[in-house]
């Protein structure tokens, strides 16, 4: 143990204790650096797992490591040899999408289901109806052509043009929507005032005219025959 008399630098006890504490701190720092240096010098890298192992344990460690562990060829993790197949199947083996049955790497499955799978459920931009992504384009081509009345300008606007219309609509009412209704009402009034069409001719009237014509022809022929007979008698 250090003799405390070496710190007797003066009559001030506070200075003496301060110098003693500084000396102890300096000795601790030097010893710590020495231990760290010794540790660094006695560490070796295992050629099987690439880990730093104390030199005194390197042979025992290598024997155990090479016999029981192996490095994954995909992620470079050290896994127990008996669980290597399980590690691959649960971590790296291709998986099938439960919606479209496409095979892919496990790492991209979540992105595929959320953004790329053609069978994922999406909603229509116009009616918010849920449907598979493969049917979305055809559905929106029809749905987007439906019209709705703008209550600001009284115009019927296609749903696909609704957003742009809302930006440019000045809110001035447009009475063009009432014009077709006024035209229809005028046509109905005109039709009510128009005289009814004549009733169709009955079939019996046609038969009467035909009978009169036949009778007239018969009388004419009879008179001609009568005149010829009179001529022959004279």
UniProtKB/TrEMBL annotation:
<protein>
    <submittedName>
        <fullName>Uncharacterized protein</fullName>
    </submittedName>
</protein>
């Amino acid at each position: 143990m250090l003799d405390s008399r070496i710190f007797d630098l003066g009559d001030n006890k506070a200075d003496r204790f301060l110098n003693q504490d500084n000396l102890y701190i300096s000795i601790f720092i030097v010893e710590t650096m020495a231990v760290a240096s010794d540790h660094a010098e006695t560490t070796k890298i295992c050629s099987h797992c690439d880990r730093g192992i104390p030199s005194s344990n390197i042979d025992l460690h290598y024997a155990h490591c090479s016999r029981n562990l192996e490095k994954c060829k995909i992620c470079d993790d050290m896994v127990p040899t008996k669980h290597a197949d399980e590690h691959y199947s649960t971590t790296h083996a291709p998986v099938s999408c439960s919606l479209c049955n496409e095979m892919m790497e496990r790492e991209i499955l979540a992105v595929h289901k959320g953004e790329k799978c053609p069978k994922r459920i999406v909603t229509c931009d116009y009616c918010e109806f849920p449907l598979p992504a493969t049917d979305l384009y055809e559905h929106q081509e029809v749905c987007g052509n439906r019209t709705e009345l703008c209550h600001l300008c009284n115009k019927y606007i296609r749903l696909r043009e609704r957003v742009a219309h809302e930006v440019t609509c000045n809110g001035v009412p447009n009475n063009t929507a009432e014009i077709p209704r006024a035209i229809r009402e005028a046509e109905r009034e005109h039709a009510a005032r128009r005289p009814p069409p004549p009733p169709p001719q009955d079939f019996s009237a046609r038969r009467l005219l035909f009978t009169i014509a036949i009778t007239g022809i018969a009388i004419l022929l009879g008179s001609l025959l009568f005149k010829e007979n009179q001529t022959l008698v004279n």
